[in-house]
Amino acid sequence: MRNGHYKPNCRPIQRIAIIVPYRERETQLKIFFLNVVPLLYRQQLEFDIYVVEQVGGRLFNKGALINTGFLQSKIDHSYDCYVIHDVDILPEDDRNYYTCGENPRHLAVLVQQFGYRLHYPEYVGGILALTSTQMENMNGFSNLYNGWGFEDDDFYRRIKNAGYKLERTPDKFAYCGSLDHKAAIKNKDGCEIFMRYGRMWRFDGLESSQYTTLKREKRQLFKWILVDFDANLLKENLKVSVKNIDKSTLPPRYKGYKDSYCAWYLNQKSFSTIKNVHYTEKPNNTNMPLRTFNTSYLEVPRTATKQCLTTML
């Protein structure tokens, strides 16, 4: 692997771009590479990894980072598949293929920090695979969410609004480990933005992205992009752009689980990932086998002389 790119010794099914929104998670990033890179080797995929880092001084904005990574990766190559990947989520099964299909595909279905269960029916966080056309039809992610929370729920609504049906990896292949980290600052205005701008998704996203690329480097395992943007300015620009729009002409807003959940969400005092999560943990269902994942090795890729994997889930 060189300059963040790997090509197997065979004809790969798809060439994928993995986009990792990132800031101040160096330990998790190292563990991420030790686990995800060997898995992609074994899946015999051609891939590039983009680590998109937000400069300090502003609240973390995951949605804007994903949009930036997508737009920057398209400058390099027109990929068959784009995988949005949290740095602290690690797949535990090689059969959880990093490939795209006719609909957006959720890979992190049963996550360790949620007791190896689907967090809630509309959860699409962790790992999500989609094509360039799908991403553009949904106008990417919202740029408005500063702080932790809501950007994934907003994106699920975009999936429904754009007419797609979310696909998920079958449960028996969809187990994912999770890494502990310090609590993130929550999005205080998340519910207000989620409810107020739900019908504005065609105006808030890829088409309204504004960012400054401060640095761009090719490293051995990944392409590093350091960016800065002002989400508050993006919000003000959105207000101006939709000021004179006849709201009756806007598409209806998909209403789901998060709308009723929002009132409860605002009343919580703090939000963080589960603390003291071990790398080996027994699921709540005692009849299920022990799930483990390795964080200390980098496996040499298997060689192949013929066509790569030809079957997908």
From TrEMBL:
Pfam family, one: Glyco_transf_7N
Segments forming domain Galactosyltransferase C-terminal: 105-182
Subcellular location: Membrane
Pathway: Protein modification; protein glycosylation
Domain Galactosyltransferase N-terminal: 3-100
Superkingdom field: Eukaryota
Any one GO biological process: carbohydrate metabolic process
Membrane topology annotation: Single-pass type II membrane protein
GO molecular function terms noted in the UniProt entry: galactosyltransferase activity; N-acetyl-beta-glucosaminyl-derivative 4-beta-N-acetylgalactosaminyltransferase activity
Key words, A-Z: Glycoprotein, Glycosyltransferase, Membrane, Signal-anchor, Transferase, Transmembrane, Transmembrane helix
GO CC, alphabetical: Golgi apparatus; membrane
EC code: 2.4.1.-
Family affiliation: Belongs to the glycosyltransferase 7 family.
Described function: Catalyses the transfer of galactose onto proteins or lipids.
Protein name: Beta-1,4-galactosyltransferase
Lineage: Eukaryota, Metazoa, Spiralia, Lophotrochozoa, Mollusca
